[in-house]
Design brief:
Distance between the termini: 58 Å
Order of helices and strands: HHHHHH
Number of helices: 6
Radius of gyration: 29 Å
């Protein structure tokens, strides 16, 4: 913003500009807000780059757990949880959680 633009702004416009610039203007006079705005340098907008696209994850623990369960349908819960801990690298609590999540995913198929 140029100083001429800042000088011609109304109180409401100054406050909007200060808020957009991240200036706390609560106890400032209009002159102080104008000075603070003139010192602020413009920044690049992050939205101009476009939305970031999340890339597909591969080799996750969930994929390994699902594969283990589909390859071993005859094992009981306790055995599968032991395999999750040993082969996939989960904790005991995590293995129990993954078991129930995998059961739900396999039933949905």
């Amino acid at each position: 913003m140029t100083t001429a633009e800042i000088a011609s702004m109304s109180r409401a416009d100054l406050r909007k500009a200060a808020k957009a610039a991240g200036i706390k203007y609560g106890k400032m006079s209009l002159m102080q807000i104008r000075e603070a705005l003139s010192e602020v340098k413009p920044t690049k907008s992050k939205k101009a780059d476009g939305p970031k696209v999340r890339k597909e994850r591969t080799g996750t623990k969930m994929e390994a757990a699902l594969e283990l369960m589909t390859k071993n349908p005859g094992l009981v819960r306790k055995q599968i949880i032991t395999k999750f801990i040993d082969d996939v690298g989960l904790t005991k609590a995590g293995a129990n959680t993954y078991y129930s999540l995998c059961q739900k995913k396999l039933k949905a198929k």
